């Protein structure tokens, strides 16, 4: 298989797994337990939290382990709403459903929501965010880079705008952890998900600035100072910290290698496949992402044909009740329905090779020709 879907998930690194294994087998204690086995697990969690805090650039008591990017987004948005009781929310129109669906939930409780559109390059400007803020705005979320287009957002500047207006700013950093520096100093909270950087699935971390007006989402035991109940998965915490450390330390090297593969792929596709369009800004995007639409082709059909050739990619469109709806991200960028439905996302990772780029370009050419020929 040629795997070009790293924005969806990444394989667990062998070295990370080896660090996790002892906490799933011999050192299996509950970190809350008062005995030696519990203390061993608790020490591992403390070390993982310290390491994560160091990398995020915050103090250890500002780091919370959660189940991933979805819980992080829900905690931030709903937690701020719960702490205020009422108010206005601003989110970008290109946020992940973790935020858009959380905002939709909060509308049912009387919170008002403004969605800020990006420009046609996929960038949300700090000015458009500032224009959307009101006196009663309590929360704002704009992600660090979009998961469909990979387009990088001016998170630090948006954070500064929110700070000026005393609005809680959450930055979904799921797509940039280990790729770009964290905007920690410019936001009130951020979230990461370890399966996006070769760590374990179903686990993530949040930075929440001390003193922020936010309530807990998950009520339960006194784990994580009572803010997030539930028995901590010590193995996953160890895995997240190890994977984040490796991704951060090797970031420059990985980014350069991956960008070279992606750039070769992009220039070959644009040159060799007529009617191909790169979606989103060409320069301001994470090194792994190439999102294309092809005239006369539906993204689902391309995905299907590539899958038959053993190549894993994804589309931006969601399939609800059998009907394919165009990507909300590309639609918000002003693309028409055909282009938004035609999008295919290729996301490269650290184990891909130039040979795989070759094979994928050839398979893609065949797929596009076949679909166009069938019409
Ligand atoms: N936010 C972004 C930008 C994502 O890309 C994803 C996953 O694709 C999530 C949030 C959700 O993360 P998780 O799968 O850990 O719940």
Describe the protein in words.
The structure is a single chain. The protein is α/β, with parallel strands linked by helices and 375 residues long. 40% of the residues lie in helices and 16% in strands. α2 packs parallel to α7 and α8 packs parallel to α12. The longest helix is centred in the last third of the chain and has 22 residues. The mean pLDDT is 97. The site of pyridoxal-5'-phosphate (PLP) has 13 residues, from α3. Pyridoxal-5'-phosphate (PLP) binds next to α3.
Poorly predicted parts: none
Q: Count the E strands.
A: 15
Structural class: alpha/beta
Strand content: 15-25%
List the total number of helices: 12
The main pleated sheet reads as: 7 strands, mixed
- Head-to-tail CA distance between termini: 29 Å
**Main sheet: which strands, in order across?**
2-8-7-6-5-3-4
Mean pLDDT: 97
Work out the radius of gyration: 21 Å
Helix content: 40-55%
Task: Report the principal-axis shape.
Answer: globular
Q: What is the helix/strand order?
A: EHHEHEHEHEHEEEHHEEHEEEEHHEH
Unique bound compounds: pyridoxal-5'-phosphate
Short description:
The chain has 375 residues and is of the alpha/beta class.
Considering the chains and any ligands shown, give keywords for the structure.
binds pyridoxal-5'-phosphate; 15 strands; about 375 residues; 7-stranded mixed beta sheet; alpha/beta
């Amino acid at each position: 298989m040629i795997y070009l879907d790293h924005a969806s998930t990444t394989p667990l690194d062998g070295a990370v797994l080896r660090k996790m294994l002892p906490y799933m087998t011999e050192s299996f204690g509950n970190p809350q337990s008062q005995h030696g086995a519990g203390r061993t697990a608790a020490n591992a969690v403390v070390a993982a939290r310290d390491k994560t805090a160091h990398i995020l650039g915050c103090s250890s008591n500002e780091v919370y382990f959660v189940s991933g990017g979805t819980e992080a987004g829900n905690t931030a948005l709903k937690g701020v709403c719960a702490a205020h009781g009422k108010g206005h929310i601003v989110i970008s129109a290109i946020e992940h459903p973790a935020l858009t669906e959380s905002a939709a939930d909060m509308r049912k409780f009387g919170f008002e929501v403004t969605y800020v559109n990006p420009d046609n390059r996929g960038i949300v400007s700090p000015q458009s965010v500032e224009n959307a803020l009101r006196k009663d705005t309590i929360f704002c979320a704009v992600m660090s880079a979009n998961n469909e287009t990979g387009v990088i957002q001016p998170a630090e500047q948006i954070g500064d705008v929110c700070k000026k207006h005393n609005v809680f700013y959450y930055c979904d950093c799921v797509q940039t952890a280990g790729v770009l520096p964290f905007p920690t100093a410019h936001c009130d909270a951020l979230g990461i998900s370890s399966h996006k950087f070769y760590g374990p699935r179903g686990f993530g971390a949040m930075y929440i600035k001390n003193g922020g007006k936010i309530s807990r989402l998950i009520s339960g035991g006194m784990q994580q100072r009572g803010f997030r109940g539930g028995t901590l998965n010590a193995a996953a915490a160890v895995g997240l910290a190890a994977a984040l450390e490796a991704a951060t330390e090797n970031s420059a090297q990985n980014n350069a290698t991956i960008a070279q593969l992606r750039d070769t792929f992009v220039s070959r596709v644009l040159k060799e496949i007529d009617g191909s369009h790169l979606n989103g800004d060409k320069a301001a995007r994470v090194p792994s992402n190439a999102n294309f639409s092809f005239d006369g082709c539906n993204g689902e059909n391309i995905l299907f044909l590539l899958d038959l050739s053993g190549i894993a990619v994804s589309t931006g469109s969601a399939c609800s009740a059998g009907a394919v709806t165009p990507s909300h991200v590309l639609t918000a960028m002003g693309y028409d329905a055909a282009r938004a439905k035609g999008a295919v996302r290729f996301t490269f990772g650290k184990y891909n090779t130039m040979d795989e780029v070759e094979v994928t370009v050839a398979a893609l050419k065949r797929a596009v020709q076949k679909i166009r020929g069938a019409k």
